[in-house]
């Protein structure tokens, strides 16, 4: 298995990872932290997918995808923090004024988990951010210790995976997800 991480510019592949089974569903599409809350509530059904398709065609794709050969098997959302709701989030602190990028969602398709794909996605997201001039990348993973985490709620990632990727603890947050606190982890790229 040779995993390759590429910019998420192919909409059909993004749909495979974060789109709904039913086109009319109002699922996340990984938009909840990317766009203002009001717009997130207004975009319904197919309009959500159309919005993501537009992002995929843009100058800055909405994240990265992991491929096993040409099969999309993983997704990571990464963007400048200033372009996300993390710029205004009261539960996730800003540790300084550096124009960091945020890495907030990692998803690996069932049947492909426990093969190192999340590690490849973190590394690929960091390289994507670096290639676009990011001075640092932040993540807001669950600090679950040795506790088991529901895979549905593990989308922000797990602290130990970010530590393995070279991220260091930067701050506590007041955000809790699935009963686990989230911490702010950072990787300096300067």
Observed structural traits:
single chain, 190 residues, alpha+beta
How would you summarize this macromolecular structure in one to three sentences?
The protein has 190 residues and is an alpha+beta fold.
Task: Please explain how this structure is put together.
The protein has helices at 11-18, 37-42, 46-57, 117-131, 159-164; strands spanning 3-7, 63-68, 71-80, 101-108, 136-139, 168-177, 180-188. By secondary structure, it is of the alpha+beta class. The chain is globular.
Task: For the record, give the distance between the C-alpha atoms at the N and C termini, rounded to a whole number.
Answer: 32 Å
- Quaternary structure: single chain
Helical amount:
10-25%
Shape: globular
Strand order in the largest sheet: 1-2-3-4-5-7-6
Give the averaged pLDDT, no decimals.
Answer: 94
């Amino acid at each position: 298995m040779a995993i390759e991480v590429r910019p998420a510019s192919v909409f059909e592949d993004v749909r495979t990872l974060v789109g709904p089974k039913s086109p009319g569903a109002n699922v996340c599409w990984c938009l909840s932290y990317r766009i203002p809350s009001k717009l997130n509530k207004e975009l319904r059904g197919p309009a959500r997918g159309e919005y993501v398709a537009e992002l995929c065609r843009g100058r800055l794709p909405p994240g990265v995808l992991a491929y096993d050969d040409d099969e999309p098997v993983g997704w990571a959302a990464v963007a400048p923090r200033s372009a996300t709701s993390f710029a205004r989030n009261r539960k996730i602190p800003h540790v300084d004024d550096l124009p960091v990028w945020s890495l907030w969602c990692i998803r690996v398709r069932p049947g492909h988990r426990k093969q190192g794909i999340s590690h490849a996605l973190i590394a690929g997201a960091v390289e994507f951010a670096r290639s676009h001039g990011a001075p640092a990348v932040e993540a807001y993973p669950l600090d679950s210790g040795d506790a088991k985490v529901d895979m549905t709620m593990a989308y922000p990632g797990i602290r130990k995976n970010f530590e393995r990727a070279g991220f260091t603890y930067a701050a506590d947050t007041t955000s809790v997800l699935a009963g686990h606190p989230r911490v702010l982890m950072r990787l300096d790229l300067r």
